[in-house]
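Box 3.1 A note on notation
Throughout this textbook, protein chains are presented in two layers. The first layer is the amino acid sequence; the second is a token string describing backbone geometry. Keep the layers aligned when reading.
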Amino acid sequence: MSGSLQFEIVSPEEKLVSEPVHLAVMPGEAGEFGVGADHVPVVASLKYGVVKLYMQSLDEKKPRHIFITGGFADVAGKECIVLAEDAIDVDDLGTVEDLTKAMDKLSADLDLAATQGDRLRMKTQIEITAAKIDAVKNKPNTLY
């Protein structure tokens, strides 16, 4: 693909994505940002959220959506490597109902947390689960 960016998402468990894309839009700590071929070199911290991959052009109606729980993006020339804490296709996150049940359980467990550190970890998990629910609600209707 001419003018493409070789894009990879790697987590401790697997390499989830390794393919050329037209544009990748990522959830940066300071907000969403996009990278394409020949982007200025940058290393960026990523927060939890959806990475959107436009394979051919920005006009695509259904970009591929990958949910990450944070990490780093290393962009240089025609290559971008995302080192993610965890990554999963949005199509594989489950249903809104299942995720809502998981969030309800986390919220109930929050009241039982023994330490401030436990409360902080659980609050983060609640925020991530809420973001997963949003990702499933807003995913494109296609499978990869």
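Strands lie at 5-10, 15-21, 23-28, 31-35, 39-54, 64-77, 79-84, 87-89. The domain at 5-90 is CATH 2.60.15.10 (ATP Synthase; domain 1).
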